[in-house]
Write a structure and sequence with these properties.
Elements (H helix, E strand, L loop, with lengths): L1 H29 L6 H4 L14 H13 L5 E5 L6 H11 L5 E5 L14 H20 L22 H22 L1 H6 L2 H4 L6 H28 E7 L4 E6 L10 H11 L3 E5 L7 H17 L8 E6 L7 H6 L2 E4 L9 H11 L13 H7 L6 H19 L7 H13 L1 H7 L5 H7 L1 H28 L5 H13 L8 E2 L2 E2 L6 H8 L4 E7 L2 E8 H8 L5
Length: 546
């Protein structure tokens, strides 16, 4: 008795404890409290639902959705991280009445791309992609919205006691009615009917027959529902075995077309947004399948609404006339970041993320940011670099107050741009580590090259000291010698000046100051232009160290 009381006491305390913990957790979820701004303001990699400068894209897409009934396939094009997803998410936020669904597909295994030479393997891969699209469509809604779908889902509902009692009572009543109809004599012999104070007569037989029919219909309905989602794999009469298995869902669009039509008929979806399809290998075959599917959906009498497919893809998925043949309309997105505006974008990210410290903090100078920004053209990469820099900086500053932040930022850029090489650092390998290890060899090689150049310049200086020119005319004659090397024939006149008189100081000065191409005459009837100018001759004649 004492043990039973103790057990009830412990069970009660456990229930109270669980109730209190659950209540506290709900309060914390609804009131999360304050978060340190220095951490919470770091950028995230999700699309921006409050994108700016997209008014023209919004007007164009709205016009296509409302005023162009023949436009069923729209492409939104931009490079990777060019702002496609941010535009779509912002548009969905501003237009909550848009009955849309987003399908995201991607394959980031670059090593396997382009190696699908086997037709069967390529077909299987396409089927898997189609299956994924089908799953994302059907599993995006509750099971009760698609009650007749063959794709059965696990319902997260506990069996209630009254449901279990109803099923048990129904089965007992069903077998009792059968006994009344077919085994009444046996019941009378065993005197079981008298126990229940029931007299077998025509009225009771009629009620039993109706009961068997009604309850039997419910049982048959449940059996049909069960077999809609299961198939019999094997039947062994000797051992009395029946094997059930889930129906195979490995299919293509054609096999489950009725499921897709049923989905759009029941949900009334009007817009399907496909993202990251351009990252898939063999994506053109998938685009053809989707185009066929869109055509079938819009021609189906079972679907009353217009179904529009929107593809967020790169510009180079289709080239030339294929782009205009495949899509009904194309909306190009001007990339958020490019070589021109990447610096102000990076500067704004750093300022809004509070990772540059105080307003007068010059640890990341404008000159440094201008030099490094052209190497980062991906908006998501920019955000991740700034976020990682903020975390690294705060972590390392707590241990080292003399941290050089520009070096840290450069290291974070290297970590993101060359992630593969960065991962090799942990194993003492990689190009970066090899470069640091070869620093002494590079310096020595540079010194050797400098010594050779210095030696050459010294030799040229000594040679110039030995030159003896007696007059300006001799100096002009040397220059004229270099000029004649640029002319294919031995001229008699250069720029309408007799070659014999060119070395005279005043005449040479006029020729030296001339601009444009040099012309010459090597006989009376031949007057030609050269492809050289006096500036070219001067650059060859005058030493580079002057």
């Amino acid at each position: 008795m004492l043990k039973k009381i103790t057990s009830i006491k412990n069970s009660t305390f456990r229930s109270i404890k669980l109730f209190v913990l659950e209540a506290c957790w709900r309060i914390l979820k609804n009131h999360p409290g304050s978060v340190d701004d220095s951490v919470s303001d770091l950028p995230v990699l999700t699309p921006n639902k409050y994108a700016t400068n997209i008014e023209h894209y919004e007007k164009r897409l709205t016009h296509l959705l409302i005023n162009e009934p023949d436009v069923n396939e729209v492409a939104i094009t931009a490079p990777y991280a060019g702002g496609k997803s941010s535009f779509i998410e912002t548009y969905k936020r501003k237009n909550p009445q848009l009955n849309s669904i987003s399908i995201s597909l991607a394959d980031f295994n670059e090593s396997e791309k382009g190696n699908d030479n086997d037709t069967a393997e390529s077909s299987n891969k396409l089927n898997r992609i189609e299956k994924s699209i089908l799953q994302q469509l059907l599993y995006s809604v509750k099971d009760k919205i698609l009650p007749n779908s063959r794709f059965r889902k696990i319902t997260m509902q506990k069996k209630k006691t009254k449901d279990l009692f109803a099923h048990g009572f129904g089965l007992a009543l069903f077998f009792f009615f059968i006994a009344i109809l077919f085994f009444s004599d046996l019941l009378l012999k065993l005197e079981l009917v008298n126990v229940f104070l029931i007299q077998v007569n025509t009225s009771l037989a009629t009620i039993s027959a109706l009961g068997v029919i009604g309850i039997g219909s419910l049982i048959i309905t449940d059996i049909i529902k069960f077999f809609q989602s299961h198939s019999i794999n094997k039947v062994n009469l000797l051992k009395g075995e029946v094997g059930f298995g889930e129906k195979s869902n490995d299919s293509i669009f054609n096999k489950h077309l009725e499921e897709i039509i049923y989905f759009f008929h029941k949900t009334k979806r009007t817009v399907v947004i496909f993202e990251d399809i351009d990252r898939l290998d063999n994506n053109k075959a998938l685009f053809v399948k989707l185009k066929e599917l869109n055509c079938l959906l819009n021609q189906s009498d079972d679907i009353s609404q217009r179904v529009i497919f929107i593809y967020c893809i790169k510009d180079d998925v289709f080239t030339g006339s294929d782009r205009t043949k495949f899509f009904d309309s194309i909306i190009p997105i001007v990339p958020i970041t490019n070589t021109v505006n990447v610096y102000p974008t990076l500067k704004k990210l750093i300022q809004t993320s509070y990772v540059s410290g105080d307003l007068n903090d010059d640890d990341l100078s404008d000159t440094y940011l201008r030099d490094i920004s052209p190497f980062i053209l991906d908006m998501r990469l920019l955000k991740n670099i700034v976020a990682e820099y903020g975390i690294y900086r705060d972590t390392l500053l707590s241990k080292n107050s003399n941290l050089i932040k520009e070096r840290l930022f450069s290291f974070i850029v290297y970590k993101n741009v060359y992630a593969d090489d960065f991962s090799l650092l942990h194993h003492g390998e990689g190009l970066f580590l090899q470069t640091l290890g070869s620093k002494a060899a590079y310096l020595e090689q540079f010194k050797v090259q400098l010594r050779i150049e210095i030696k050459d310049y010294k030799a040229r200086i000594e040679l110039s000291k030995k030159e003896q020119l007696k007059s300006i005319e001799e100096l002009n004659a040397i220059f004229l010698h270099h000029l004649l090397k640029k002319i294919p024939h031995i001229p008699t006149m250069i720029n309408d000046i007799d070659v014999k008189n060119i070395t005279a100081p005043l005449i040479f000065k006029e020729l030296y100051a001339s601009t444009g191409q040099i012309n010459y005459r090597f006989n009376v009837n031949h007057y030609n232009n050269t492809s050289t100018t006096m500036e070219v001759v001067k650059s060859d004649f005058i030493p580079s160290f002057l």
